[in-house]
Design a protein that fits this description.
By secondary structure, the protein is an alpha/beta fold. It has 10 helices and 7 strands. It has a single domain, classed as Rossmann fold, CATH 3.40.50. It is globular. The structure holds BIS(adenosine)-5'-pentaphosphate. The site of BIS(adenosine)-5'-pentaphosphate has 36 residues, from α1, α2, α3, β6 and α10.
Length: about 210
């Protein structure tokens, strides 16, 4: 049996960067609600139209809609060996829904890995984030520059503009941060320091956490 892992941390803390590596290491799917919403937005689906306003303003998509999508995704065959949840849960109701959903199946989250990075570093990182629309790879113009052959096709996320980043941080502190205590109370919280640390050194810490499970 594989691991069911939740990634916690502010926007830009490096959840996606680490989740991709962990998914490769553990051979389980990386499920990012942000990626699911952005893909629907890009494809112009009815779900994409519904979530557009929330993503562009840096607010949260309503819990009910988000929970419905995740509950469906977790029933896919590739999830039987575990998964890395990135960007979900993001509120206490979402965390409670996940616990209840798993309990009905006799399952539970094995670890909630919280990557801790101060707000000042977050703003700096997000303004320099770029992603590759062909491979999904995440780069940073300052901290992990892209290879020259892909540089021309990289895009910046709409919600990485300075004003939206501040709103995302506000939303994070008000609504998402309380779930750190929620997972601490469940006894599965694992803290990892992501400040002033390269993605490689954060991953080394994450691997140490995985060894304890
Ligand atoms: P989502 O896509 O989940 O965005 P987020 O949580 O704001 O997280 P990010 O993807 O911005 O950051 P990350 O922590 O993954 O960092 P990354 O690895 O890219 O959500 C987007 C929107 O969708 C939300 O605002 C909301 O509207 C909606 N949504 C999603 N889920 C929802 C839910 N459950 N409920 C309701 N609404 C929901 O790294 C950031 C940058 O830093 C990169 O450039 C990277 O290269 C660089 N970097 C990474 N690690 C390091 C390091 N150690 N040192 C230096 N740079 C680093």
């Amino acid at each position: 049996m594989g691991f069911r892992i939740v990634m916690l941390g502010a926007p830009g803390a490096g959840k996606g960067t680490q989740a991709v590596r962990m998914a490769q290491e553990l051979k389980v799917p990386h499920i990012s609600t942000g990626d699911i919403f952005r893909k629907n937005l890009k494809d112009g689906t009815p779900l994409g139209l519904k979530v557009q306003g929330y993503l562009n303003s840096g607010g949260l998509v309503p819990d009910e809609l988000t929970c419905e999508i995740v509950a469906d995704r977790l029933t896919w065959d590739d999830c039987t060996a575990g998964y890395i949840l990135d960007g979900f849960p993001r509120s206490i109701p979402q965390a409670e829904m996940l616990t209840a959903f798993l309990a009905k199946r006799g399952e539970a989250i094995d670890a909630a890995i919280n990557i801790d990075v101060p707000d000042s570093e977050i703003v700096d990182r997000l303004s320099a984030r770029r992603s590759d629309p062909e491979t999904g790879a995440i780069y940073n113009l300052k901290f992990s520059p892209p290879p020259p052959e892909v540089a021309g096709r990289l895009i910046q996320r709409e919600d990485d503009k300075a004003e939206t980043v501040l709103n995302r941080l506000l939303t994070y502190h008000e609504t998402t941060e309380p779930i750190i205590s929620y997972y601490d109370d469940l006894g599965v919280l694992k803290n990892v320091s992501g400040a002033n640390a390269t993605p490689d050194s954060v991953f080394a810490e994450v691997l140490d956490v995985l060894k304890t499970l």
